[in-house]
Design goal:
binds (4S)-2,6-dioxohexahydropyrimidine-4-carboxylic acid, 22% strand, 29% helix, single chain, binds zinc ion, Urease, subunit C, domain 1, alpha/beta, 18 strands
Length: 436
Amino acid sequence: MKLLLKKGKIFDPVNNLSGEYDILIENRVVSKISKNIMEKDSKDVEIYDLNGLYILPGLIDMHVHLREPGYEEKETIKTGCEAAAAGGFTTIACMPNTKPVADNPATVEYIKAKAEKALVNVVPVGSITKNGEGKELAEIGFLKEAGVRALSDDGNPVMNSEIMRRAMEYAASFMLPIISHCEDKNLSGDGVMNDGYYSTILGLKPIPTVAEEIMIARDILLAEYTGASLHIAHLSTERGLELVLDAKRRGINVSCEVTPHHLLFDDSYVTGYDPDTKVNPPLRDKRDVTALREGVKMGIVDVIATDHAPHTYEDKLGEYDYAAFGISGLETAVSSLYTELILKELFDFNDLVRLMGINPARILKLDYPGIRVGTRADLIVFDPGRNWKVEKETLKSKGKNTPLLGKELKGKVVLTFVKGKMVYNDLENKGVLIYE
Ligand code: DOR
Ligand code: ZN
């Protein structure tokens, strides 16, 4: 079985490849990349005319909540991977705040077994502490053996500094990065949105930026002390970014990610009390959003990750105070970044591949060959001319909780290949998922 992708414009900074090329895929392996591949025998070759479309290496989302086991009403490994495929992610790292928590090898094995049948590659993240409670370390060595690529108590901070110190010492000896959810619970309290002008006029309980920054500072100090590799999850403030920049200059092994929602929306979006704007850390003020964008542009931000946090309609129902925190992000990430940031020239597609491919692969120690002859390619095709409306009915994720519902986005992922096999085809606007 041969597949010929004709005339797509490639953006592949891994292989320094850019420009229009034809790509031949034979038996799922990229066998040829060149300016004009002639395939006369059209019987056993399927030809796709990709003139005007872009081809990128498959993207990695290193921060995803797949919810299985335990919260299958919110998302399953199957549906989360379908959403990833539709969003252009060929590899996703899944957070351990499931039920049971992925703090043990059996749960990690369960996730891996389910993921084998799913559409994209899944990389499990293990819990730092037992049951994610921050009280007692998980069996980090066994988790590593079971195949986790990182450790995190995401959803909650490790409040006890001594426990975080020991976690970092173990993580360093097992060569696992710590992905830290930075939040001082005493400072965030029962807050529901960013502390500032809007929390005051809306009468909603505030979460100050310092609740996040104080923990970023602590974890940087602990990483310096222990030599651990530290990755700051969903960084959302200007001051936090300065702390990371300073740590990098001091040679500390630290990286950070920001989410599309923190780059796109500020806290004025909470004005309609839409529970889909409720997320942790909260949407920050304009100044922070501007600083995060600048941080991406300057290369201080290593990674853009969605923190895909699907919830049911019921979880998000009712008053803002009681709604669950989280935004469903896999399917809108690339299009919304394209619409708001790439088209406005904050960065380009090569940067996107660095932020959502090369850098997450480096942090999680994953192979990332890009589009190269001899490999089973993870690649995606993006149509910059396709405008689409975000609608509940067409999202593959069970989580419809996004403030982008009803909004028009520019550009869309239209083909996704995982290990050389097409798993998603939206060329004809049908959003087809392909299992076999
Ligand atoms: O908004 C969030 N939702 N932030 C987190 O840290 C956890 C996540 C979740 O698990 O729903
Ligand atoms: Zn998260």
